[in-house]
Amino acid sequence: MDRREFIKSAGAFTLMTPILFKEALAAMDQPLVVVAEGRDYPVITRRAINAVGGMKRFVKRGDVVVVKPNMGWDRSVELAANTHPLVVRTVVEECLSAGARKVKVFDNTCNDARRCYVNSGIENALEGMKNVECKHIETERFKKVALNGQFLKEWELYDEALSANVYINVPIAKHHGLSKLTLGLKNVMGVMGGNRGFIHRNIDVALADINSHLKSHLTLIDATRILTAHGPQGGNIADVKVLNKVIASTDIVAADAFATTLFGMKPADIPVTVSAYKRGLGEMNLDRIKVVRV
Question: Has residue 111 got a pLDDT over 50?
Fold first, then answer.
């Protein structure tokens, strides 16, 4: 039952005291973060999706869906620089099962795109899937968009992300030398064109500007293994910690806030999370987030 249904049914709760009623309403307002754990990554990914309402909650028959992983680095799967290919494939499969007409997977990579797509394992994982595109960014498809943000007044964004019916954000959880961590909010850089280095002058506010314009309908954070140091590129297996977790939420800030705890940090330690919270993009206070483990 969501808040609206609860209020409609309020007559059934006439025996509640005003305090209990207010507490029940507050619980309805808490964003849900699901944490699925296990060694079978397709299974835990599906479990996480189902626990937030199932993919049909987000994808309707005939929709064009963008599934946006992190595959920006020329690194193999075990080095935890890119989203796990099994997590990405499972999300795509769930979109197709929900009735998606087309699923598009892409990233504006930092290293050579051909090597990133192959060595991340994602291109191979999606090979041969019907109605699925895993293609390199086409620079002519970036469109200058008016953001009217606090730092970015306009920026070039990828039109396939903007025009999709559903945008699903599938980052990996990892360390980042500048922003401390890179999670859901920062994964939006993969749809940005232009001189992305410019936003490092005020990265937390810039990313809040972008996420204010391009909203993630669902965020699934790959924490099957996390990069704990020397991110975002990594390269040393000693920096990788296997956690066997997938995190899901419709609230990107809440998802990032919980994922921060996997690194022994607090949401308030991450400027990007704080900026997004202040902008009203989601909840960062852990005591106001409902965490369900499945």
Answer: yes
The H or E element spanning position 29 is: helix 18-29
240 and 156 in one domain? yes
**Residue 116 corresponds to which amino acid?**
C
Could you tell me if 36 and 17 lie in one domain?
no
Q: Rounded to whole angstroms, how far apart are CA atoms 14 and 111? A: 61
Do 37 and 26 lie in one domain? The reply is no
Question: For the chain, how long is the longest CA-to-CA vector?
Answer: 64
Per the structure, the count of domains in the chain is 2
One DSSP character per residue, 43-69 reads: HHHHHHHHHTT-GGGT--TT-EEEEEE
Q: Both 98 and 174 in a single domain? A: yes
Per residue in 53-84, pLDDT (tens digit) is 999 999 999 999 999 999 999 999 999 999 99
pTM for the complete prediction?
0.91
Nearest to 174 by CA among 284, 104, 71, 282: 71
Range of the domain at 257: 32-293
